[in-house]
Each structure stands twice: as structure tokens, then as C-alpha cells.
Amino acid sequence: MDNIMRFIEQIGLRNLIFIGIGLVVIVMLLLFYRGMRLRKYRKLIVDVENRMNGIKSLPLQYRLGRVHSISKNMPEVVELYEEYAKEFERISDYQKNELGVLVNEVDEQLFYGKLRKISTKMKELENMLKVYEDDSQALLEKIEKITEIENIQRIEIIRVKEKYRQLIDHYETIRFKVEDFVKGIKNIFNNLDDSFVKLEDMMNNQRFEDAKTLTQDIDKKVDWLTERLQELPDYIAIVRQYIPKKIHHLDALLQDMSHGEFALDQLHVSDRYQAIQSTLETTTQHIQQLQLENVGEVLQKLVDDIDALMKDLEVEKQSYEVFKNKWEDAYTKITQIYDQYKQALIDQNRIENLYLINEDYVDIQEKYKDFDQILRTSYELEEEMNAGNFSYLQMIDKVEKVKNDALSHQDDLDAFFAFRDHLYLQEQRAIDELENINIVLLEIKSEIKNKHLPMINESYKDYIQDSYDKAAQIQAYRMHRPVELSELSKRVDSARDIIYKLYDNVHNLIVTAEMVEEAIVFGNRYRSSFLEVNTELTKAEVLFRNGEYTKALSTAVDIIEKIKPGSYENLIQKTSKKS
Fold first, then answer.
1. 317: closest CA among 384, 263, 359, 243?
2. Residues in Cβ contact with 91 at an 8 Å cutoff, skipping those fewer than 6 apart
3. Which residue of 67, 262, 393, 538 has the lowest C-beta tally within 10 Å?
4. What is the mean pLDDT of residues 303-321?
5. Cβ proximity of 237 and 299 under 8 Å
6. Nearest Cα to 177, choosing from 118, 218, 231, 119?
7. Residue 482, preceding bond cis, omega within 30 degrees?
8. Going by C-beta distance under 8 Å and a sequence separation of 6 or more, which residues neighbour residue 170?
9. Tens digit of pLDDT for each residue in 221-257?
10. CB atoms within 10 A of CB 510
């Protein structure tokens, strides 16, 4: 006791109190920490138990039982079932003898508040639980691959049943159109109903492969029937109403034309009508038997054939007046072209005698040989018409062909006549030019004579005579047949250019001489006043009498301009007015 008191005295009562309080706090903290850990691990063990129970609740045993049932009808599944059963037993033993035991041990330890090695055991529990969960899930996945066969098959059956229900709903909307025409359609639906009953029986007995095959077969039949019911009402309406109505109109038209003079045999009416009836009968049988492959195309062709026959008959009926008009028109055109050919043959012979032709042109004689064949065809066509046994429609085509063949020669005839006229015009142009040359020569002679300019007359006499000779030579060349028109035109153009040049020269000299006379007359008024003017004008007169008109004009104008500037311009204006 004394020792204790001394210890207290050494430490101090106050310090001792603080130490005591600290120890109490530490103990309380330790107790609180231990309680929190205990609470944590209890929560963890509860979670572990819940997870384990969740894994235990997986439908492994139920699914394994279904695999066992499936294996009875699928021998290839038996071995898998035995493997999965062993795996399930192993997992169950693992859960009971290892995982479950450790869970109970940890749970009991926590119940008594013992935390020794609890963290290690919890980690071990977590690892074991993961193994248990992974193995269970893996086994379930393997089992479901087999049991999924049934699920997939049932989904497929549901899909096919829904398609069949939609088919029945659609059929109810068209039953009144179809049922009395297609007698066997009731049996098809009854067979499908029986197939669904048989399919359900297969599924109940786990005959999934057989059920799958039957489902596919039913699906194809439903699609086949759905496709046909989409088109069936239209096909029935066509063969029961639309086509018979057209045939009725066709019969009436045939009855009407049978009393007229129409060559129906030429249009093969009987064979075509028989083919229409036969096709309609066969197609109707196919529709009643739901053999609808290509029925749409057959019906379309059948309608087209009926329309084509009716059109041919109506056109034949309307073709008589048309035929008469076309034949008259064709006969007129052929006659006109024949007359043109006769004239063209004459003209071809004439131009070949008149002209040397160095260019290509339409050979009328050769073209006429082709036209002669068309004439022969028109004669044969006329004989056929006189015989009487022909179709107006077909005959219109023949008449049109003969007419068109004949008209194809019109371009050749037009080209030939254009070429002929071109030759005639070319020669006429040369003739006109020769006449113009003679007229110009007469004008030159007349102008020289009227102006009394002997120097000009003497100077140009030989030129004028040469021009007359050249014109005569050209005329002689033209009259020598056959003549080459290009050479004739060349000679005429050359002579024309020379004559016009001669005319211009003579005319210019005459105008110059007139201007000299005007200048001298104008200058005479200044002779008495200016000696220089008298002298220069005398020189101009001498030059004028010698035929040097240009020098005379220059001399006279120079002195006049010197005396009175601007006079030359007035002189030119005066001369221009006279010209």
C-alpha cells in the first residue's frame, strides 16, 4: 500500500487520473472497433449466404430434367445429359461439403463474436463462392443450349401460327369470291389445321427435330397459299367476268362481219379464236387448282390476243374506204412518177448529146430498171385485187408499200431534173453573156462614133474587131456538140472581162476628152486677158487633136487653176452630172 502511495505521489494524482481516462478511452475505442468489424463481417456473411442461395436457386435441376426428356427422342443428347448430370452432382457436393460447411463455420464464429482469422476465411469464402457461381453458370449455359431447342422451336411455331392467323383473316375477306370457284381450298385449310395439331403433339413428346421439319413445311405452305390468295381474286374476276365480256363483244363483231365480203381467213380468225378459247379453258383449270405460276403473264397475253383480234377485225371493217382512197392515191403517184421517168429518159439522152459531162449524176436508165420492178409489183397487186379474195387491212399495207417504194424514186428524179436544169441554166448564162458582150461592143462603137473622136476610133478599132472575133469563136465553140460547159463558161467569163475592161478604157478616154473640151471652153474667156493662158490652151488643143487627152487635160487644168483656183473641182462636178 505504501508502495502504491509512493508511486502515486511520484506520478502525481492528476497525471494518474489522465492516464486512467486515456486507458478507458482506448478500451472503449477497441471495443467499438471490434464491434464495427463484427458487424461488417456479419453483413458480409449474410451477403455470401444470399449469393449462395441465389446460385442454388438457378433452375439447374429443372433444366437438367428437361434435357433428360429431350434425350429420349434425341440420341445425340444422351451423352451430354450424363455429362451434365455428373457436373451438377459435383457442384452440389461442392456446395454442401465445402462451401456450405465454411459458411456455417464463419457464421458460428461470428455468432460467438470471434474474429480470429476471420478476414482470411472471408477471402477464402469469396473465392469458393466465385468458383461455385462460375461453375453453376457455365453448366446452366451448356444446358440451355439444349433446352433452347424447344424455346426456339416454340417461337418459330408461334411465328408460323401468327402468319396462318393473318392468312385466315385475309381469306375471310375474300371467301365469297374464291370458295365456290376453287373447290379444293377448304381441304387445304383443313390439312393445315391438322398439321398444327400434329405439330403440337410432337412438341409435347419432345420430338423437336420432327417438329422443326413439319414447321418448315407448314411455313412454306402458308407462304404458298398467302401468295396465291393475294392474286387469286383478281385472276378469278378476269376469267369469270372481264375476258368473257370481251369474248362476247368479239362474237358480236364476228357475227356482224360474217355477212360482209371480208376475207376473214386472211386474218386467220378461226385459228386465233380457237386458241383464245383453249387458253382461257386451260388457264381457268390452273386457277381452280391454284397453279398460278405465270398465270398473270398468260392472262395478259390472252387479253392482248383478244384485243389484237378485235382491233384487226375493226380495222378490217373500217379499211374498205381507206383502201379505195389509198389505192387511187398510189395509182396516181405511180403514174406521175412513170411519166416523169419517160421525160427523164428523153432528157438524159438529150443532155448527153448536148454536153460533155464530167461529174456524177443520177443514172435514170439504171433507176428506171428498179422502178420497172415496182410497176410489175403494182400490176400483180391489181390482179390480186381483181381476184377478190384478200383482206383490206393487209391490202392497205401492200398498197402503202408499193406507193412508198415508188415515192422513194422521187428524190432521184428531182435530183436528175435539178442537174438537167443546172446544165441548161449554165449554157443559158453563157448565151446571155455573149449577147451582153455584143451589146457592150455596139455601145462602144456607138459612143466613139457619136463623140466624133477619130483618134479613139483608130486606136480601138483593132481591139473592137478582135472582141467581135473572140465572141464569134465562143459562139462557134458552143455550137459544136457535145460542148464542155465548164470550158464554155471559162471562155465567156474571160471575154466578158476583156470587153468590160475595153469599155471602161474607152469610156474613160471619152470622159477625159469631154473634160478637155470643157476646160478649153472655160479657159477661152481668159485668153484675151492673159497671154500665158492663150499659149497653154493652144498646147492643150494640139494635144487634144493628137489624141493625148490626159496631157491636154492636165495642161488646160493647170493654167486655169493658176488663174482661178477651184475651177477644176467645178469642172469635175459638171462632168459627173453629165455622166
1. 263
2. 60, 132, 135, 136, 139
3. 538
4. 76
5. no
6. 231
7. yes
8. 226, 229
9. 888 778 777 877 887 788 888 888 888 887 787 777 7
10. 19
Query: Distance between CA 445 and CA 456 in Å, rounded?
Result: 10
3-class SS at 483?
strand
Task: Summarize pLDDT for 176-205 with one digit per residue, the tens.
Answer: 777 777 777 788 778 888 887 887 777 666
Spans of all domains in the chain: 1-150, 163-313, 316-429, 452-576
What is the pLDDT, as a whole number, of residue 450? 67
Q: At what angle do helices 549-563 and 531-545 cross, to 10 degrees?
A: 160
What span, in angstroms and rounded, lies between the C-alpha atoms of 386 and 503? 74
- Residue 89: name the closest of 139, 145, 126 by CA: 139
Cβ within 8 Å of residue 111, ≥6 positions away? none
The per-residue pLDDT of the chain, averaged, comes to 76
Radius of gyration of the CA atoms of the chain, in A: 65
Cα-based distances in Å from 399 to 145, 229, 267, 572: 83, 52, 17, 78
H or E stretch at 149: helix 118-178
CB-CB contact of 485 with 355 (8 Å): yes
What's the predicted TM-score (pTM) here?
Answer: 0.40
**143: Cβ contacts below 8 Å, ≥ 6 apart:** 60, 63, 64, 67, 84
pLDDT at 234: 80
pLDDT at 7: 60
Distance CA 327, CA 330 (A): 5
- Cα 420 to chain centroid distance, Å, stands at 48
Over 517-563, what HEC string results?
Answer: HHHHHHHHHHCCCCHHHHHHHHHHHHHHHCCCHHHHHHHHHHHHHHH
CA-based torsion, 281, 285, 288, 294: positive or negative:
negative
Predicted local distance difference test score (pLDDT) of residue 30: 66
Which amino acid makes up residue 396? I
Q: Are 67 and 80 in contact (CB under 8 A)?
A: yes
**514 Cβ contact list (under 8 Å, min separation 6):** 451, 575, 578
Cβ atoms < 10 Å from Cβ of 440: 17
Using alpha carbons, select from 187, 310, 174, 167 the residue that is nearest to residue 235: 174
Among residues 416, 395, 125, which one has the least CA distance to residue 263? 395
Amino acid identity at 121: K
Whether 145 contacts 83, CB under 8 Å: no
Distance in angstroms (rounded) separating the CA atoms of residues 221 and 189:
10
In our burial notation (b when 16+ CB lie closer than 10 A, e otherwise), range 26-59 reads eeeeeeeeeeeebeebeebbeebbebbeebeebe
CA quadruple 294, 300, 301, 305: dihedral, nearest 10: 160
Residue at 450: amino acid letter: N
What digits encode the pLDDT tens for the residues 461-502?
A: 666 777 777 777 877 777 888 888 777 888 888 878 878 887
